[in-house]
Write a structure and sequence with these properties.
Blueprint lengths: L1 H21 L3 H12 L2 H11 L4 H23 L5 H6 L1 H34 L11 E7 L7 H9 L4 E7 L3 E6 L6 H5 L3 H4 L2 E3 L2
Antiparallel strand pairs: 1-3, 1-4, 2-3
Helix pairs in contact: 1-4, 1-6, 2-3, 2-6, 4-6, 6-7
Length: about 200
């Protein structure tokens, strides 16, 4: 019975860790989905949130606050809300916080970089040019997380001279553009870069 209880605790810790790990990325995920679907109204509503450079950090902090509150409730319910209780339930707590951290890292390192380029390919396929030699630059943009990459690519694609954009983790954007239609100065002076500074690195 004791073994079954431990397995049930571990399962609950894992599920809660996944939930708290997903929580901070909710708005970034929604923005990507709405952008892919072409839902401009919903995207416009979420855009001001993503323009807040501290928004992501606030949400990540909240995810750990929720995990801590959940931990306190769990320990109190079992009448072990103490340092000794923490030591006693260290496996459950390590699963809870470990999963929360792992989910955040997976979104950072894998999912958002992949979705950023998938999103770009769906909404703006690379344009063909007629005997025009394209120029290329790489911008380093001070975005707080890869979930903001679709916001940057969305702003860049509104410039007709841009023919292709590829996002590279953590904050690099490889851009190919028609120098007859736009320039480095025009690209770096986009309004979005008043919030998230862009620097030419190549």
């Amino acid at each position: 019975m004791n073994c079954c209880n431990k397995k049930e605790e571990q399962k609950k810790g894992l599920l809660r860790g996944i939930l708290y790990g997903l929580a901070p990325h909710t708005f970034c995920i929604a923005f990507i989905v709405f952008t892919i679907l072409g839902t401009t109204t919903a995207t416009a509503l979420l855009k001001p949130l993503l323009l807040n450079p501290y928004f992501f950090y606030i949400l990540v902090t909240l995810s750990f606050i929720f995990a801590t509150i959940s931990t306190a409730i769990y320990l109190k319910r079992n009448s072990i809300l103490s340092f000794q209780g923490i030591k006693r339930k260290w496996k459950y707590l390590s699963i809870l916080y470990g999963t929360t951290i792992s989910v955040n890292l997976i979104f950072f390192m894998v999912i958002f970089p992949a979705l950023s380029n998938l999103n770009l390919n769906l909404i703006q396929p690379a344009a063909t040019t007629n005997n025009v030699q394209l120029a290329s630059i790489t911008l380093e943009v001070s975005i707080p997380c890869p979930g903001h990459a679709p916001l940057i690519t969305g702003e860049l694609k509104e410039n007709n001279g841009i023919k292709d954009v590829k996002f590279r983790f953590p904050n690099l954007f490889d851009i190919k553009y028609d120098p007859q239609e736009t320039s480095e100065e025009k690209l770096t002076s986009l309004e979005i870069f008043n919030t998230y500074k862009a620097t030419i690195v190549k």
